[in-house]
C-alpha cells in the first residue's frame, strides 16, 4: 500500500468518524425535541378541545336563558289571558269581580318579580285566591289550567336563576385556557422548526456518510 493510499484511508476514517458524530448529535436533538413536541402537541389538543367546549357551553347557557326568559313571560301572559277570558264565558256572572282583579294584579306582580323568593311568595298568594273561585266544573277547569301555567312559569324562573352567571364562569374558563395555550404555542412552534431542521441535517449527513463509506470501499 502506498503512503498516499494509506493517508487517504486514514482521512476517510477520520471523516467518517466526524460525520457519525454529527449524525449522533442531530439524532439526539431530534429524540429530545420530538419527545417534548409530542407532549406539547397532546396538551395543545386537549386545551383546544376544552376551549371549544367552554365556548359551546357558554352559547348553550345564553340560548337556554333566552328560552326560559321568553317562556316565563309567555306562560304568565297566557295565565293572564285565561283569567280575562273567564269573564266572557257564561260563568262570568259567578265570579267575584274584586277577587278576579286581585288575581290579575298578582299575575302582573309575578311578571315584575325581582327574584325567585318574591315570585314564589306571589305564586302562593295566587293559589290561595284561586282556591276561593266557584267550584263549578268549568271554572275549576280554568283554575287548574291557570295554576299549571303559573307553576311552569315559576319553574322557568327557578331554572333561569340556577344557570344565571354560569356563562361568565365559562368566559373565565375560556380566557384561562386561551392564555395557557398562548404560553405554550410558541415553544411548540419552535420545537417543530428545530425538529424539521435537524431532520434535514440528518438526511444530509447520512448521505455524506454513505458517500464516505463508498469512498472507503473504493480506496481499499
Care to describe what's here?
The radius of gyration is 40 Å and the shape is rod-shaped. The protein is 90% helix and 0% strand. With 220 residues, the chain is mostly helical. It has 5 helices and no strands. The protein has one domain (3-219).
* Share in β-strands: under 5%
The major β-sheet equals: none
Weakly predicted, low-confidence segments: 1-10
Shape: rod-shaped
- Separate helix tally: 5
The domain tally reads 1
Query: Rg from C-alpha positions?
Result: 40 Å
Distance between the termini: 9 Å
Helix content: over 70%
List keywords for this structure.
mainly alpha, 90% helix, 220 residues
How is the secondary structure organized here?
Layout: H1 3-88, H2 97-112, H3 116-130, H4 137-163, H5 166-219
Helix pairs in contact: 1-2, 1-4, 1-5, 2-3, 3-4
In short:
With 220 residues, this protein is mainly alpha-helical. The chain is 90% helix and 0% strand.
Amino acid at each position: 500500500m502506498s503512503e498516499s493510499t494509506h493517508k487517504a484511508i486514514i482521512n476517510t476514517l477520520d471523516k467518517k468518524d466526524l460525520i457519525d458524530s454529527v449524525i449522533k448529535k442531530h439524532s439526539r436533538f431530534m429524540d429530545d425535541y420530538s419527545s417534548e413536541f409530542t407532549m406539547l402537541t397532546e396538551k395543545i389538543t386537549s386545551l383546544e378541545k376544552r376551549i371549544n367546549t367552554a365556548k359551546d357551553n357558554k352559547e348553550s347557557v345564553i340560548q337556554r336563558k333566552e328560552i326560559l326568559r321568553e317562556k316565563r313571560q309567555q306562560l304568565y301572559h297566557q295565565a293572564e289571558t285565561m283569567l280575562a277570558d273567564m269573564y266572557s264565558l257564561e260563568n262570568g256572572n259567578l265570579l267575584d269581580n274584586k277577587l278576579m282583579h286581585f288575581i290579575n294584579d298578582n299575575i302582573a306582580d309575578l311578571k315584575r318579580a325581582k327574584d325567585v323568593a318574591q315570585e314564589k311568595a306571589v305564586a302562593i298568594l295566587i293559589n290561595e285566591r284561586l282556591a276561593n273561585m266557584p267550584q263549578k266544573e268549568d271554572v275549576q277547569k280554568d283554575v287548574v289550567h291557570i295554576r299549571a301555567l303559573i307553576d311552569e312559569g315559576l319553574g322557568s324562573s327557578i331554572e333561569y336563576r340556577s344557570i344565571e352567571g354560569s356563562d361568565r364562569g365559562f368566559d373565565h374558563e375560556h380566557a384561562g385556557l386561551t392564555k395557557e395555550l398562548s404560553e405554550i404555542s410558541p415553544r411548540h412552534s419552535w420545537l417543530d422548526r428545530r425538529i424539521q431542521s435537524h431532520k434535514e441535517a440528518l438526511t444530509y449527513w447520512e448521505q455524506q456518510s454513505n458517500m464516505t463509506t463508498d469512498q472507503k470501499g473504493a480506496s481499499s
